[in-house]
Amino acid sequence: MSQILVTGANGFVGRALCRALSVTGHDVTGLVRQASGIGGGREWIDNSIDFTGIAKAWPQGFKPQCVVHLAARVHVMRDDALDPDAAFRATNVEGALRVAQAAWRNGAQRFVFVSSVKAVGEADSGHPLRESDTPFPQDAYGRSKFEAEQALVRYGNETGLDVVIVRPPLVYGPQVRANFLRLLDAVWKGVPLPLAAVDAKRSLVYVDNLADALALCATDPRATRQCFHVADGDDQTVAQLARAIGDHLHRPARLLPLPVSWLRVAGRLTGRTPQVERLIGSLQVNTTHIRAVLDWHPPHSTDEGLAATAGWYRATHGDHS
Asked: Which residues form the NAD-dependent epimerase/dehydratase domain (predicted)?
């Protein structure tokens, strides 16, 4: 049994990870900004901004073997920060480094940093993205994640802290928010979606699959100083995804066959080109590395993950729509 600290433990992925670790017998502590319940283990509260107070707030005698760092300033479609790069960097780079430093000073041997495929890029350029591909992040969030990876690896090389990097694509599951929730809303309400002609595929990862992979990265000696891409491995087009969601919601998705070129023009005219490209562009990740090194296979299929997500949506949103 390992003692593991999870930052951002009351978030979407954090709760799933705490449950996964607790079920397998690990001693889990969740670092959160306010008490709320983390689904497994106990909580430690630090409400300092960007972890500036973590060194002083660290509980006396608390010496986890591993820290999984999930807490982050997340990607937003309309960022109102005057300097988005600086805002993301303060939390995602400088904050992550403060957590790593505090962890190392208190005896942690491994630091699992949950990054993002956006640290590599927004598109796959014709082949599923590998860990060895040259990173080319396109927005402030992606740049901050890539800079954090670099800073943490340097710190690990200087001190001996074992830094493991995990890059998931879009994460879905019960309690999902943002774009995936909007897609669920649209299918449930019968909103026409101009996606039938989009044939580009995108990788996804079910939240419980990601939690399973993170738990393995936190505890398996074979993960030492590795970088892993994690996904379900069943890449689908947005149209296929919408149809599958419709099947599980028992509401057929209404898909219109608008040419992709028209969608791009609409994106330019409305100033929403980045959003349109996320719908019509290909972004697949190659998961060969984690499967080969850790013998990891997702415990749940994409269809199982979508069924669970749709079931949650019907129970919490569907009756009120």
From this structure: 4-224
Instruction: Determine the Cα–Cα distance for residues 206 and 32; give it in Å rounded to an integer.
Output: 23
Please tell me whether residue 300 adopts helix, strand or coil conformation.
Answer: coil
Per-domain boundaries in the chain:
3-173+203-233+283-301
Structure tokens of 53?
A: 């107070």
* Spatial distance between the Cα atoms of 58 and 173, rounded to a whole number of angstroms: 32
State pTM to two decimals. Answer: 0.93
With residue 65 as reference, give the H or E element that holds it: none
pLDDT tens, position by position, 110-143: 999 999 999 999 988 889 999 999 999 989 999 9
Q: Are the C-beta atoms of 204 and 232 separated by less than 8 Å?
A: yes
Integer angstrom CA distances of residue 73 from 52, 86, 179, 181, 228:
15, 11, 17, 19, 21
Active site residue 313: no
Distance CA(138)–CA(280), nearest Å, equals: 16
DSSP alpha helix (H) spans, 165-230: 178-189, 207-219
For 119, residues 6+ apart whose C-beta sits below 8 A from its C-beta are: 135, 137, 142, 145, 146, 149, 167
Judged by DSSP in three states, 7 sits in: strand
For residue 120, what is the enclosing H or E element? none
Token pair listed for 49: 């901004």
* Rounded-to-integer distance, Cα 55 and Cα 19, Å: 26
Q: The dihedral of CA 273, 202, 70, 166: what is its sign?
A: negative
- Tokens standing for 64? 């986890």
Contacts of residue 15, Cβ cutoff 8 Å, sequence gap at least 6? 9, 38, 39, 175
Digit-coded pLDDT (tens) for 135-187: 999 899 999 999 999 999 999 999 999 999 999 999 999 999 988 999 999 99
CATH for 3-173+203-233+283-301, options being 3.90.550.10, 3.40.50.720, 1.10.287.3510, 3.40.50.2000 = 3.40.50.720
Residue from 11, 115, 34, 104 nearest 64 by CA: 104
